Amino acid sequence: MKNLVLIGLSGCGKSTIGRRLSRLLRMPLLDTDAMIAEAVGRSIPEIFAERGEAFFRDLESAACLAASELEGVIISTGGGAILRDANMEALARNGMVVFLNRHPARILRSASLADRPLVQDDREKLFRLYAERLPLYRRWADAAVPNHGTRRRMARCLRRIVKHFRQHTGKDA
């Protein structure tokens, strides 16, 4: 069975929606940031502070590759996983990629930036990252689904993802 890969900006809802999809589709959820933190024994902010972004991106690539080799899992990626083609090529090879599109203004209203090292000290950077990464998110996505964060809209978002996934896999997942 194919994987379901969630991509999008930090704070767009990948983890929250991933958990709900995991229950709905009865598929295990893997979070690449959690995989990294567990492997290194450090939080993502600690890794950034102690070793820098380049080191983190190497760990992220290893996590993406490891996750891509599994079958029948939901993979919640870090917001920057799309920065390396090799990450996305591996994830897309055995997975349907869904871009959770949430505007930075909505993210700033509802998500904490404390554990998000690239934007925790500069809220405006979230807007710059969105503008820079949006073409990459769109490039790699098999489906793009808006996530505006309300309960009703999240239910709609979940239904759209399930529909796309079932169409993509040709199965009743």
Provide keyphrases for this structure:
173 residues, alpha/beta, Rossmann fold, 5 strands, 13% strand
Verbal overview:
The chain has 8 helices and 5 strands; from the N terminus they run βαβαααβαβααβα. The protein is of the alpha/beta class. The model has no long low-confidence stretch (mean pLDDT 87). Strands 2-3-1-4-5 form a 5-stranded parallel β-sheet, with helices on both faces.
CATH-level-4 superfamily name: P-loop containing nucleotide triphosphate hydrolases
String of helices and strands: EHEHHHEHEHHEH
- What is the residue-averaged pLDDT? 87
N→C terminal distance:
9 Å
In short:
The chain is α/β, with parallel strands linked by helices and 173 residues long.
List the helices and strands and how they pair.
Layout: E1 3-7, H1 14-25, E2 29-31, H2 32-40, H3 44-51, H4 53-68, E3 74-76, H5 85-93, E4 95-101, H6 104-110, H7 123-140, E5 143-146, H8 151-169
